[in-house]
Amino acid sequence: MEMTNGQRNRLIKKELTKKYGSDNVSVVGGMGAAYGWAEVHIYTEKPETCYCKETESYCLECCKEINKKREEASKLIYAIPNIEFYTYNSDDAYNTESDCLSIQVSINN
């Protein structure tokens, strides 16, 4: 039986919650033209080595943390058995096919 978008999103939320906690993970499905997309948002704390505490932009250490969490989340999501996503083709002259999955990481101030 094929998994619905809601079932898929709940599985993603369940898996990511084990690692990041339920208050730090949001998984929603796209609506309208974005139907089928899985939009994942992870909230994390600034790393101890952060040096951007006085500015509004992220320092290199924060950027590294964001990329690390995004990569971890991606690996966890694709390790879920039978997980499937709709795909789209980029308009990049190479017709690159990608999954309809968006993973965003935000650092709490």
Explain what this protein looks like in three dimensions:
By secondary structure, the chain is an alpha+beta fold. The protein has a single domain, classed as GMP Synthetase, Chain A, domain 3. It contains two helices and five strands. The protein has helices spanning 5-20, 60-78; strands spanning 25-29, 38-45, 87-89, 97-99, 101-108. The strands form two sheets. It has a three-stranded mixed beta sheet, covered by helices on one side. It has a two-stranded antiparallel sheet with strand order 3-4. A hairpin with a 7-residue loop joins strand 3 and strand 4. The longest helix is centred in the middle third of the chain and has 19 residues, at 60-78.
Report the mean per-residue pLDDT as an integer.
Answer: 90
Q: What sort of overall outline do the alpha carbons produce when their principal axes are compared?
A: globular
- The percentage of residues in β strands lies in 15-25%
CATH architecture identity:
2-Layer Sandwich
Low-confidence stretches: none
The sequence of SSEs as H and E is: HEEHEEE
Report the total helices. Answer: 2
* CATH class (first level) name: Alpha Beta
